[in-house]
Design brief:
The protein is an alpha+beta fold. It has 22 helices and 13 strands.
Length: about 750
């Protein structure tokens, strides 16, 4: 009898299981599929919105089409994915666009549609550049270049070269960027495509602009503008006028820059390009700020602010407030400058948060989409097999149900008589089993507790040992770090002892040779010790003065500075009194001391230097430089007796700045071995001279987190020229700290200035 019961229950369980599985399979199949009529309606709605350029609605229905793409033939799938990629690109959903284009490529790669393959690959490469995936973009576009050559696809080849140009320009490899944009331009001329011609010319100009060759940048930008003016491409003209204004601004030709910006303003107003107009007003304000017309600068900044607020353009609002901050700082209203800087940070942070939120939403949507795609792919593959399986299961189910009904009728009669007898036995057996199980569980729990206790004791011992080891290592590191810092600080004291006390020396010079001048030194090492140094000697009624920048900074640079100071003392003691000869002797001394031969792979250590000899009796300066220049600032108008070989003339507050440029070679082994040139000039009372290394103008910072650059350094020198030398040092210090901000100092900084009597 018990065996009979067990067999009956097994049969019953099998029937229930088969029945449940059939129902489950049917529900899954219905939830993931739609009928053909419904799908066709969705697809035609998608096509209608795409053709009418209603991209938001097209994107929504396109996602539904993709979700049920098992209803499409392969060719129509590839077209759908291409459309979705284009729509996502127009909506700036670049990650989604790349995904859809890659799905289209997976289908096109199985065909001989080479034109579509090349076109989509060039588009994917450009989108990878936009999303910052430069390496992947470079690899894909390089492969596409070979593919286009093989199948003679010149239009796609042109767009491939454009993409490679953007990638290498983004990597600051301007030479490679220029190479590919030039190839892009060549094909554009061959195909007579004015849009590609104007784009290529403009991007070549932008490469020269970023690399600092502003004259060449302007020449290409003008050519691009001429093409766009011929074809009346108004929006592109707005951007090109804006680009060329930057080139003229960096050249200091503010009137020409303003002329092009006003052209851009006119077009933007007439065609209601408000987004472009905001940037134009910011740039116009910057030009007036550079020209010192603060009233007009403020007017245009307020115009830009009004548009940005009206359109809620957070990126532009951040830029406007940043320009207001700089403008107020120029006017000396530091409180207002600080308030505008806080608004700049507020909108920058808001924009960042929006971008992060947008990326998270895109990733979440992408995850759900991928999940559904996998489910659909699996369903589409196994759909026919699943239907056959369900039919077979239903047949088995009905057969077994009929058999079990007959079996149960007979079974009920037998079971009823058997149940009464077995009920008591089952209850007793159940209770015995419960007692046994409880005993086993208690024993198992006791063993587990003992095991965990022993494990915790071992773990505690191990942690204690590791803690002692970490403590010992920490103490050793602290001792070593203290020893290193003590050594560096001692080296710093040695280096400071070698550097002259310039105020003390000038007091001695002024008392013995008459009033020579008033000096200042702004010296800021990057590390504890410095590779920059200054040196001064008085001999035979002349003052020998230099500022030098040794290779490297920190300890290596400090060693080189000691070598330079020692060599200069020896050379001056040998009565060499011409600046070019002193540099020549110092170069030979360094090459000999460092055993330099010029062999391939040899260290190219040395130093850059600006060296001058001041003759207060004859009021002359003898200057020579190795890669470094000397600035002279004097009051207007300039005297005809004041002669220099080369000069850079910039007007600011009735002063002129002249630059005496050094030779383009260092003090050390160099590919170009030629003598240094001396420059002899006369100076007048109250002229100011400045010697410096490159650390000040190479400092990273400012609103755009870029180098300070020579033009800003010159303007700052001119701006502070009327101040006392003590105040000039304070101004240079404050300006440097403000520019650097929270960035790390990139190099040693040294500026030496003298007001000549």
């Amino acid at each position: 009898m018990p065996k009979f019961l067990k067999i009956s229950f097994v049969f019953f369980s099998i029937i229930v299981s088969l029945s449940t599985q059939c129902v489950s399979d049917e529900l899954i199949n219905k939830s993931l599929t739609i009928d053909t009529a419904t799908f066709n309606k969705i697809y035609h709605t998608f096509e209608k919105y795409y053709e009418s350029e209603n991209y938001d609605s097209a994107y929504y229905y396109g996602q539904q089409v993709v979700l049920h793409s098992y209803n499409l033939f392969e060719r129509k799938k590839s077209i759908t994915y291409s459309y979705m990629g284009e729509i996502a690109q127009r909506k700036n959903l670049y990650t989604d666009a790349i995904f859809y284009y890659k799905e289209a490529m997976a289908i096109y790669n199985k065909t001989d549609d080479y034109k579509s393959i090349a076109s989509i690959n060039s588009t994917i490469g450009y989108l990878l550049y936009v999303t910052g995936e430069y390496e992947e973009a470079s690899v894909l576009l390089s492969k596409n270049e070979s593919f286009c050559f093989k199948h003679n696809l010149k239009t796609s080849l042109a767009r491939t070269y454009m993409g490679l140009g953007f990638v290498y320009r983004g990597l600051n490899a301007f030479g490679k960027g220029l190479e590919f944009f030039s190839k892009y331009l060549e094909i554009a001329y061959e195909l007579d495509n004015y849009q590609d011609i104007s784009t290529a010319l403009n991007e070549i100009g932008n490469v020269y602009l970023l690399s600092g060759d502003y004259e060449k940048a302007i020449s290409y930008q003008i050519k691009s503008i001429e093409v766009k003016e011929e074809y009346k491409d108004t929006l592109a003209l707005c951007y090109s006028y804006n680009d060329i204004s930057l080139s003229y601004k960096y050249l200091g030709k503010y009137d020409l820059a303003l002329e092009y910006l006003l052209k851009s303003e006119t077009i933007a107003i007439n065609f209601k390009y408000d987004y472009v107009l905001t940037a134009v007003y910011i740039n116009i304000a910057d030009i007036y700020n550079q020209k010192g017309d603060f009233t007009k600068a403020e007017i245009y900044l307020n115009k830009a602010l009004a548009i940005a607020l009206g359109l809620n353009l957070k990126s532009e609002l951040s830029a406007v407030y940043a320009e207001f901050s700089r403008f107020m700082a120029e006017k000396g209203d530091y409180k207002k400058a600080y308030e505008y800087q806080e608004l700049t940070t507020l909108y920058a942070d808001s924009l960042l948060n929006e971008n992060v939120h947008k990326q998270l939403n895109e990733l979440a949507a992408k995850y759900e989409f991928d999940k559904k795609q996998k489910e659909i792919a699996l369903l589409s593959k196994d759909q026919l097999l699943q239907q056959n399986k369900i039919t077979q299961q239903k047949y088995i189910q009905y057969t077994l149900i009929f058999g079990i009904v007959v079996f149960v009728i007979v079974l009920i009669i037998l079971v009823n008589r058997y149940q009464i007898k077995q009920r008591a036995n089952k209850e007793l057996a159940r209770k015995n089993e419960e007692i046994f199980q409880q005993k086993e569980e208690i024993s198992s729990q006791r063993d587990e507790i003992e095991y965990q206790r022993d494990k915790l004791l071992d773990l505690n011992s191990e942690i204690s040992t590791q803690r002692d080891q970490v403590t010992l290592q920490r103490d050793e590191i602290v001792v070593k770090n203290k020893e290193i810092n003590d050594s560096l600080n001692y080296a710093k004291r040695i280096q400071q002892a070698l550097l002259p006390d310039i105020s003390k020396i000038f007091n001695e010079i002024n008392s013995s040779l008459g009033e020579l001048g008033e000096p200042f030194v702004f010296f800021r090492p990057k590390d504890i010790v410095s590779g920059d140094f200054y040196w001064i000697r008085k001999k035979n009624n002349k003052v020998f003065l230099t500022v030098a920048d040794c290779t490297g900074h920190g300890v290596p640079g400090a060693f080189m500075s000691i070598l330079g100071i020692s060599a200069l003392n020896e050379i001056i003691n040998n009565n060499i009194t011409e600046s070019s000869q002193i540099l020549l002797q110092l170069k030979a001394y360094i090459i000999n001391s460092l055993h330099q031969t010029g062999k391939m792979g040899e260290m190219q250590d040395g130093m850059d230097m600006a060296f001058c000899i001041i003759d207060s009796e004859n009021r002359t300066i003898d200057f020579a430089g190795a890669n470094n220049s000397l600035y002279i600032v004097k009051s207007l108008p300039s005297s005809s007796s004041y002669k220099v070989d080369e000069k850079t003339n910039s007007n600011f507050m009735n002063f002129e700045l002249y630059e005496l440029k050094g030779d383009k070679m260092p003090l050390g082994i160099h590919v170009s071995e030629k003598p240094f040139k001396s420059v002899f000039i006369n100076y007048l009372e109250n002229d100011r001279i400045y010697l410096f290394t490159d650390g000040y103008k190479d400092q990273i910072g400012g609103v755009n987190n870029k180098k300070l650059k020579t033009v800003n350094f010159k303007n700052k020198i001119l701006q502070i020229s009327l101040l006392s030398m003590t105040q000039q040092k304070e101004e240079l210090t404050n300006y440097f700290e403000q520019w650097k901000g929270s960035n790390e100092q990139v190099d040693d900084v040294l500026v030496l200035g003298i007001k000549l009597k």
